[in-house]
Amino acid sequence: MGSTRKPVKYAVVDAFTDSEFKGNPAAVCLLEEEKEDDWLQSIAAEFNISETSYLTPLPLFDSPHPRFQLRWFTPVVEVDLCGHATLAAAHFCFTSGLVKANTIEFSTRSGILTAHKVLEQHLSASAESENGELEQPFFVELDFPAIATNDCNSDETSSIYTVLSHDLVIDMKRTASDDLFVVLPSAKAVKDAQLDLERISKCPGRGLIISAAAPPGSGFDFYSRFFCPKNGINEDPVCGSAHCALAFYWSKKLGKTDFIAYAASPRSGTVKLHLDEQNNRVKLQGKAVTVMEGSIMV
User: Fold this and answer.
1) Between 20 and 30 A from 113 (CA), which of 70, 93, 199, 206?
2) Options 1.10.760.10, 3.30.160.150, 3.30.930.10, 3.10.310.10; which CATH number does 8-145+285-296 get?
3) Is 138 exposed, middle or buried (0-12, 13-18, 19+ CB in 10 A)?
4) Calpha distance 235→253 (Å, rounded)
5) Which residue in 51, 105, 141, 235 is the catalytic one?
6) Residues in a beta bridge with 78
7) For residue 47, what are the CA distances in angstroms to 141, 149, 265, 293?
8) Is 51 in the active site?
């Protein structure tokens, strides 16, 4: 006899990019019935990309906006916050017909997160949807908590020097989300860095962010990369949550609150950022592209 389980619809979405096979891929699964955590983790391991997100529709209650429970899993663990998979989930909701609104709320381990559909201005080209209607290109804007950076202790400093040589380290911090944060002398140094993942996995904390000011005339404010082998992600191609710490740090260094950031991983990606210092929030804007759709049959 065949399985009586109802298939779970999914999409794989490349986030923080307008080109397929760039940016950061996330699987988005729409759950219509509760699943055990072991099943959620097994499916994430099966996808074997940096994040798999799970959407479950919630009643409206006191909110005027569609609301979903949202959970994020790497191939090996559930995480508290993920920017690119939230952007991917919002893109899925906006493009699949799941919601008609331009604002969605996600109930997560990090509280209520809001995603807005922001139409791209001054463009004549529009995409044609499946029903023949024209769809104007759009960004997704996420409202996330800002993540502070603090000075490293001696153990953290020593561990950084096992990964990066002294002459490459301009500044080093520890983020409130438990990542090490290292500033390098140039964007080229960030882009060209070949780091020992085993050494990173032995460092204190969750992962390692490397960053540098962008070169003049590049159109960007800073470059970055993020490595997290402890969570089963050797390099996260475009890490949204890391940018919540990056915005906090670079606002102090550059004296501004609006940024265009370049994720310098091999897949690359672009993140627009606004730091709301008064409310300790970061708004992240990015595009996304759906590259795969299907059903999970087990």
Assistant:
1) 206
2) 3.10.310.10
3) middle
4) 25
5) 51
6) 73
7) 26, 32, 20, 13
8) yes
Tokens of 250: 């670079």
Specify the length of the chain in residues: 298
pTM: 0.92
Q: Within 13 Å and on the Cβ side, how many CA atoms surround 152?
A: 22
Six token digits for residue 253: 């260094």
What is the per-residue pLDDT across 91-146, written as a single tens digit (0 to 9) for each? 999 999 999 999 999 999 999 999 999 998 754 444 554 444 456 889 999 999 99
Fold of 149-279: Diaminopimelate Epimerase; Chain A, domain 1 (3.10.310)
Rg (CA), the chain: 19
> How many Å apart are CA 208 and CA 190, to the nearest integer?
12
Task: Tell me if 220 sits within 8 A of 261, measured CB to CB.
Answer: yes
